[in-house]
Amino acid sequence: MIPLEHILIFSISLFVIGVFGILVRRNLLFILISIEIMLNAVAVLFVAAGNYHNNADGQIMYLLILTLAASEVAVGLGLVIQMYRRTLSLDVDQLASMNEQ
Amino acid sequence: MQDQYLSQLLMAVVLLPLLSATLLMLAALFSVSLKNVLVATLAVGAIGGSAICVILLNLQLADAGNFSFSYVYANWLKVGSFSAVFGVYLDGLSLVMISIVSGVGFLIHLYSVGFMAKDQDFQRFFIYLNLFVAAMLVLVLADNLLMLFLGWEGVGLCSYLLIGFWHQKHANSLAANKAFIMTRIGDTAMAIGLLLLFMLLGTLDIQQIQLQAEQLWPLQSDRGPAFDSVTICALLLLAGAVGKSGQLPLQSWLPDAMAGPTPVSALIHAATMVTAGVYLVARFHQLFSLSPLAMQVVAAIGAITLILAATAALVQRDVKRILAYSTISQIGYMFLALGAGAYSAAVFHLMTHAFFKALLFLAAGALIYSMQHQHNIFRMGGLRSKLPFICVCFFFGCAALAALPLMSGFFSKELILQKLLDREMYGFWLVALSGAFITAFYSFRLFFVVFFGSTGQLPDAKPTTNMKIALSVLVLLTIFGGIAPSGLSAVFAESELASDHNLAIILFTIAVPLSAIAVCWFIFKKQLFNISIKSDKLKGLHNFLYSGWGFDQLYNALFVRPFIKATHSNKKDFIDSFYTGLCQISQLSHQYLNKLQNGQLRWYNASLVLFSIAAMTFLFTGQ
User: How many CB atoms lie within 10 A of CB B285?
Assistant: First the structure.
């Protein structure tokens, strides 16, 4: 049995890695992956917490997050492809040009 | 039956000029171009019609000794218990006034047709002139304070419009502004006085007011001059009269008002409007009689003004400015007479002054017209053979102004001097007599310099027939107009005591102007009038007199310059600074907030993360 603290630390570090990825990466694809990492960090936390409380709700929540992530990725990847078609790059900073009329 | 006839006549008197002004104005508004002949016929015809109505009125009332009628034509305002009406009040005083206004007004209209013939704004001129006559008639016929004020402001407006008639020249509009603002100072005081009267006595009707004033504030002869409410009301009214009539301390606008066309100077700034102040005091004579202090102030203002303006007229070079100062001085005589309680003498002098001053101004206009708009009398000279008709007009005008025997001005001025003696006001009598000396001196200085001596500039035009007709009638009026109107003494309830005066004194007063003319002729022969002054002291005195005792400089230093300085320092308008500040704040915040909206996805993310961390820290540590 892995102690809860370890899982918490693991989950938080995974989440922070995801946040960090979002903040420093300019490539849209990596940002999307970072979001997935953050989602998985949360999902791990749900499963661990459900296990801790002897409750199956956490695992059900994980299934929910899984479907959510799948649909999100579908939309996100669609947007990524659109962006690549328009700008021929995946650099999000280039999207800032939308600010300038 | 007779009442109805009179009321219809009175209505026609006022409405005819108003109607003509309205018609001409509408024509101008819809840019219907009218021929000058048509405009002149309409404008002069309207005033002529109203003059005929006045003559009919005079005929109707010739044998009625003491009469006073008041008619109400329509309601003006009715709010609760307060009501104001369009009503007229006709007695001896207002009959004299409407006779002067419509009669002299008609002659001046007739004259203007010739004088203004070449002006582009012929129609505009006659609109203003008709409007002026209508407003003046409203003023003198008003039976309540509101109507009086309507007419009062109406003539003020027309005076402003006509002084600035040639507004293309900047100096003219400045003169118009000056006249308007200075009379406005008096008018404000007068409006306060009228409101005060209404508040204290609760009625707008002028006759009612005076009856109630006599009951409310009976004259207590033992108390002497006191500063009570009737004095305050009288002094406030006097301030309005002083402003309108160009008396001390509001006199300095009148010489500048000569910027207007000469017929305007004759009609408004000599014969009618400027005497409205005299009319006002005479109209409220019962009120003024209740306050000895106010009467003394009236007399003192008149005396000081008459000397001030007469001495200023001594050194002027512009023919119209000489006449303007002489107008101020003659109105000073009227105020002196009013202050002495000789109301009918004052109104009599008002009438004769209207005749001879209109004559003088119109003759001066004809002179200027013939001399290529030359105003300086020292550029003229020896014109008596070139312009004999104008010379004759000037002679009779100057003679009446100087009060030579048998001229109209003689009878009225003599009456004023006599009344001053009757009331044992010897100081004022002396002032008036020395004023008469100076008056005779400056009027014949003008006459001699222009018409005698060496020939200067030559005339190049002759006055038109219209001008000649008007001038001839005025000459007749000037010579034979010295018959005191019969209705006046009844209005003012004065005792008709035949004054028993020392013949020597009367002869002395007759001799004064004659000696002045002799001195004047002597100085003229020595050619001392236009020499350049060497001594500094004399030069200082000359400049002092020339500027009308330096009132313009005084007012500039006291009021105009501080005001301009104050407005200059507040050029940015400090009340506005609140709103400009608001505007600046929102612009600044826009600038800075706009930087946050930079479109950088990672910036947005970072701020989201930072905010979440901050919020969570706050939540966890807060518990």
Answer: 23
Distance separating alpha carbons of residues B84 and B73, to the nearest angstrom: 11
Q: Strand, coil or helix: what is B84?
A: strand
Q: How far is CA B259 from CA A19, B163, B603, in A?
A: 86, 6, 74
Which tops the pLDDT comparison, B613 or B341? B613
Q: Is the pLDDT of residue B584 over 90?
A: yes
Rounded CA separation B389/B463 (Å): 9
**Between A and B, how many residue pairs show a Cβ–Cβ distance under 8 A?**
28
Å between B623 CA and nearest CA of chain A: 22
Nearest to B176 by CA among B168, B187, B189, B165: B165
List alpha helices for B340-425, DSSP H: 343-370, 388-401, 408-422
Average pLDDT value for residue range B287-292:
83
Give the whole-angstrom CA distance, residue B164 versus residue B313: 23
Coil, helix or strand for B41?
helix
Quick check: A96 and B597 CB within 8 A?
Answer: no
DSSP-assigned letter for residue B454: S
CA distance A24 to chain B (A): 8
pLDDT score, position B494: 65
CA-CA distances (angstroms) from residue B543 to B317, B522, B548?
A: 12, 24, 9
Element housing B79 (H / E): strand B68-79
Structural tokens at position B448: 């001699």
Using N-to-C axis directions, what is the helix angle for B343-370 and B465-480, rounded to 10°? 150
The mean pLDDT of chain B is 84
Chain A residue numbers with beta carbons less than 8 Å from the beta carbon of B598 are: 96, 99
Q: B622 to chain A, minimum CA–CA distance in Å?
A: 22
What was the ipTM of the complex prediction? Answer: 0.83
Residues 6+ apart with CB under 8 A from B202: none
Whole-angstrom distance, CA of residue B157 vs CA of residue B176: 10
Tell me: cis bond preceding B17? Omega within 30 of 0 counts: no
Q: Check A95 against B609: CB less than 8 A apart.
A: no
Neighbour-count burial of B610, counting CB atoms closer than 10 A to its CB (0-12 exposed, 13-18 middle, 19+ buried): exposed
Mean pLDDT confidence for B171-184: 88
pLDDT at B65 over 70: no
| Angle, CA B115 vertex, CA B114 and CA B116 arms, to 5° | 95
- Please list every residue in chain B whose beta carbon sits closer than 8 Å to the beta carbon of residue A30: none
CATH architecture for residues A4-100 = Orthogonal Bundle (1.10)
For B463, other C-beta atoms within 10 Å of its C-beta total 24
- B83, containing H or E segment: strand B82-91
All residues of chain A having their beta carbon less than 8 Å from the beta carbon of residue B602 are 22-24, 26, 92-93
Name the helix (H) or strand (E) containing B75: strand B68-79
